[in-house]
Amino acid sequence: MANEGKLPRNLASVEHPRCAACEMATAHRKPWRNRRAPSGLRKAKRPGQCVSIDQLKSPIPGLMGQIKGIPTTKRFNYATVFVDHYSDMSYLVLQETDTADETLAAKHSFEAFARTHAIQIQHYHADNGRFAENLWTDDVRRQGQTMSYCGVSAHWQNGIAEKRIRDLQDLARTQLIHAKIRWPGVIDARLWPYALTTANDVYNQTGSVQKKTSKVPIQLFTDSNHHQPKSDFHTFGCPVYVLESDLQDGKKINKWDGRARLGVNLGPSPVHATNVSLVLNLETGHVSPQYHIVHDDTFETLGQLQPVKSNWKRQCHFTDELYDPSVYQTVDVENTTSPQAMHVHGHQNVCMHDPSVIITRKGRTSKPPDWHRNFTAMPAQIDPLEQHKYKENDQLKELEDPIVFAASTNPDIMYRHEAVQEPDAPQFREAMVKEVQDHLRNRHFIIIPRPQVPKDEETLPAVWAMRRKRRIDTREVYKWKARLNIGGHKMVKGKHYDETYAPTLSWATIRTWLTLAACNGWHTRQLDFVLAYPQADIPRPTYMELPDGITIEGANDCVFYRGSTVLLVYTDDCIIIDKESQSNIDTLFKELTQHFNVEDEGQLSDYLGVQISMPEQGQYQFTQPHLIDSILEDLGLWPQDHKLAPAKPKDTPAVPSSILGPDLDSESYQGNWNYKSVIGKLNFLEKCTRPDTSYAVHQCARYMAEPRQSHAEAVKRIG
């Protein structure tokens, strides 16, 4: 850093001083011979081209912090580390267990982080074991990625990830020991998850001394010149003085009470501005992002305090002692005065010393700088109450739309390899042949020999999406659909496409226009665009592999108006409404058929999974009987023997006298039905036909990440 000018350049030639914490944390055996430099290895040429992975296990459970509520008894025990070969950037995900599900969630978190910088991960390299399980390999294959492994018991073949884990462990251990020596009553090895995260942040923002480059790893990975200011880095575990919350909110407190409380710096917040730190509350054990704080990076103010009583370990249910005090050499700070203690609002007593008698470890007197005492009220750049990630990285941020959970459990939606194993596989094969023939007939693509593909062009995979379409009232299958798509997961914005757009009409708009049509007696017609997606031109040639299973021989911009006619569009399904005459609808339909392949489906019946009927003049009825039956069967409220009476319904979908909360004191939900899947179905139901359940469904959807038994009971009440 001194050579690069980030520190005074004269420090580059200064001999590094000895540090007790560094010596204790990084001691290792001396090598008895030198290793030759590797040769013949191919180097990555862009971010994401090759990523090494490995996991570390801690013998000591680590603190899993939370911003409010009763501290959890869950602990971090593992961490998965991803190292990009091109940039040397590492991404760290903390885990409670090393199960395949949590490890796969870590992979998705890393890939989501990469996607925010327009980077696609192409290849992974790892040990065997967890990364060779079907759940992992299936996801790699589904994402169009490749995988390689090191030999059995040949961990040096995954040396990049192994070395990074060692470096991060050394730095995290150094930080913990450094803080433990200076604040033994508060710092504990159970804080290792935050020390490890801080170590990873420091490495990504500074890089390795051996790497001869002017850019740090995070700049190389993101292809930018932005980096975190060095002034935003502070000593891990150091004391911080946090402005009282009332003062942060602009309120007043007793003018003779202290204006700050004491906390522990746990490193920068991962989801806030870089000058926001995570702070451990010594009284409650909560970990919160704080902006209005002052860091004591040198621990020098601890000598001015009465012995600090730390209550966070008891609050977080850490009852056993991990360390023998003799392991650490602590230095008693001589205190020549016993000043009167001043009460600090809600926290430890802080002693106000005469600055002329502060004694350092070496016996010198020192006067603390004024900035330790002054707080400046500045506009906060972030919302201090905003939730942030304390468990797995990206867990809440990457939570899917609840409707997706319903779609993912639909047995009528599948991949090609699943469809060909179904009893109706012949119908799916016929649909595949028809799909390809329609594309060829409309010249959406042409078949060319592989040597004619330009060398600089990437051939994208073909992906089949298979689906049975059923009639809503009888559940009879009336169509087998096979949609051929180019693998969008391999497409790069700016190279294969410039923008994406598909009109998706909201159900609020549909209900509004059909209400107007029913009240005024307007005419309606339902249309469906055949092969809707390829009817839009693409800006540049794109090359696709031959599809599997096919052998080749040789503002609301979804509502459009024209006079008295209204066209409602949801991707390829349309509704035409006209308030004057049926002939206007016929005219528009003929015009559409001149430019597009459009199918006339007659009067409104089944639209987007909703059965639409008109029982009386001036009324439309929207129903989803099959979806409702499916929800009731999932919840066990509709008996399999339909001769029995179903469960008695409630008068309201939610308890009117109470608000559903996190309920952290109750047991976690352990039922036999999938909470996320049912919430997804309920979400789709309330959007389409049952808006009266919106409030109750949204309340239950808030707790999908960690549902409790009370949340499951609330879901069953909706059913």
Key descriptive features of the protein:
Nucleotidyltransferase, domain 5; alpha+beta; single chain; five-stranded antiparallel beta sheet; 719 residues
Kindly describe this structure.
The chain is of the alpha+beta class and about 725 residues long. It has 4 domains: about 10-25 and about 45-220, Ribonuclease H-like superfamily/Ribonuclease H (Nucleotidyltransferase, domain 5), CATH 3.30.420.10; about 230-370, no CATH class; about 405-610, no CATH class; about 625-719, no CATH class. It is built from 17 helices and 25 strands. A 5-stranded mixed sheet has the order 3-2-1-4-5, with helices on both faces. A 5-stranded antiparallel sheet has the order 9-8-7-6-10. Helix 4 packs across helix 5 and helix 15 (about 675-690) packs antiparallel against helix 16.
Mean pLDDT: 78
Quickly count the domains.
Answer: 4
Alpha-beta classification: alpha+beta
Say what oligomer this is.
single chain
Helix content range of the residues, please?
25-40%
* Mass-distribution shape: globular
Total beta-strand segments: 25
Number of helices: 17
Rounded to an integer in angstroms, the radius of gyration calculated over CA atoms is 32 Å
Major sheet description: 5 strands, mixed
Adjacency order of strands in the biggest sheet: 3-2-1-4-5
β-sheet strand percentage: 15-25%
Give the secondary structure arrangement, pairings included.
Layout: H1 20-26, E1 51-63, E2 75-84, E3 90-95, H2 100-115, E4 123-126, H3 134-142, E5 146-149, H4 159-182, H5 192-206, H6 217-222, E6 239-243, H7 245-248, E7 260-268, E8 277-281, E9 287-290, E10 293-295, H8 312-315, E11 341-344, E12 347-351, H9 402-408, E13 413-414, H10 416-419, H11 425-441, E14 459-460, E15 462-470, E16 477-486, H12 507-520, E17 523-529, E18 543-544, E19 559-562, E20 565-570, E21 573-578, H13 582-595, E22 598-600, E23 606-607, E24 610-613, E25 621-623, H14 625-635, H15 675-688, H16 694-701, H17 709-718
Pfam family, one: RVT_2
Domain Integrase catalytic: 43-225
Organism: Nitzschia inconspicua
